[in-house]
Design brief:
Layout: E1 2-7, H1 15-27, E2 31-35, H2 36-42, E3 52-55, H3 58-61, E4 67-72, H4 74-79, H5 81-84, E5 91-95, E6 105-106, H6 110-118, E7 123-134, E8 144-145, E9 148-153, E10 160-166, E11 169-176, E12 178-182, H7 190-193, E13 205-211, E14 221-224, E15 229-234, E16 239-244, E17 247-252, E18 256-270, H8 276-283
Parallel strand pairs: 1-2, 1-4, 2-3, 4-5, 5-6
Antiparallel strand pairs: 7-8, 7-18, 9-12, 9-16, 10-11, 10-15, 12-13, 13-14, 15-18, 16-17
Length: 292
């Protein structure tokens, strides 16, 4: 089996867990590909007792990798989208960060989880992506996101004014700091902090969430992910900041923005004893009494 390792950076306290992971994969006779900038960073922190093949781009991985491990937190998982793209390569999140909502396993679960993965004892959970259809080419080839598409004002002295249409039907004009179109995965990210609802990953919906709405009666709304969502910009802001997850570009207020569901998704590896509702309980401390 050929396993890819992707990360951005790793703290010193996380090095021992990465060493456990590498040693375990070696004992399982897996061949390793490692993202080259990450490889250069970890050379002095771990012992690479086996030969590794560096990779840098999507084309390096496509048809050359059975599975990709995301080493870090949720931000690392978001960055991995530009490498996986539409290849269908399954992704396992190994949380060496903080909250790690997208990561299937914690640092203390690495060794038993690798046994399960090698044995094929896992499920694939397909996550929806949102794509920017217009303006075309604004984000190059990686015009899609796992969490959300966002629009934000660039002028702090005035509100964003955004007209929203769902399948060419007028929904509302939002006066706010900005607006999100979030996937079910993104419903536990930025949208949640703006009081958006939590949506199950298989619900086939998007949530349209205003950021700091000027009108307190306006609330997030859930729409089918088969919808084409059109955003017309206005107000005193001459430019807006458009975002796909953690990537941002500036656009003029004369642009008409169109977002929709991408025609491919991300295959997340889920351990047999884990599911979305387990994650909610663990990460959000549901059912935990913190008073004592």
């Amino acid at each position: 089996m050929k396993i890819g390792l992707f990360g951005k950076n790793i703290a010193d306290e996380g090095s021992q867990y990465l060493q456990q992971l590498i040693d375990k994969l070696k004992r399982a006779q897996c061949r390793l590909l490692v993202y080259e900038p990450f490889l250069n960073q970890i050379r002095n922190k771990v012992t690479l007792s086996c030969e590794v093949e560096p990779f840098n781009t999507h084309s390096d991985l496509n048809n050359n990798c059975d599975m990709l491990f995301s080493i870090g937190g949720d931000g690392t998982m978001l960055d991995i989208i530009s490498l996986v793209r539409d290849s269908g390569i399954p992704v396992l999140g190994v949380n060496l960060g903080r909250l790690g909502f997208l990561s299937s396993i914690s640092r203390d679960e690495i060794l038993p989880a690798i046994d399960e993965v090698i044995a094929g004892n896992y499920q694939l959970e397909k996550r929806t992506l949102v794509t920017l259809q217009h303006p075309e080419g604004l984000f190059g080839e990686v015009n899609y996101a796992l969490n959300e598409f966002s629009l934000a004002k660039t002028d702090n002295t005035s509100l964003a004014v955004i007209e929203v249409f769902v399948d060419n039907k007028f929904l509302n004009t939002y006066w706010a700091d900005g607006l999100l179109v979030a996937t079910p995965t993104g419903s536990t990210a930025y949208s949640l902090s703006c009081y958006g609802p939590i949506i199950s990953p298989d619900s086939e919906n998007f949530v349209i969430t205003p950021i700091a709405s000027h009108n307190l009666t306006v609330r997030p709304i859930v729409v089918p992910d088969s919808s084409v969502i059109t955003l017309k910009l206005g107000g005193r802001n001459k430019q807006y900041l458009a975002g796909l997850d953690s990537r941002y570009r500036t656009i003029d207020n004369t642009e008409v923005v169109v977002v929709k569901r991408a025609d491919f998704g991300l295959n997340l590896i889920q351990m047999p004893n884990k599911d979305f509702f387990t994650t909610l309980r663990e990460k959000l401390l549901w059912g935990k009494d913190q008073r004592n």
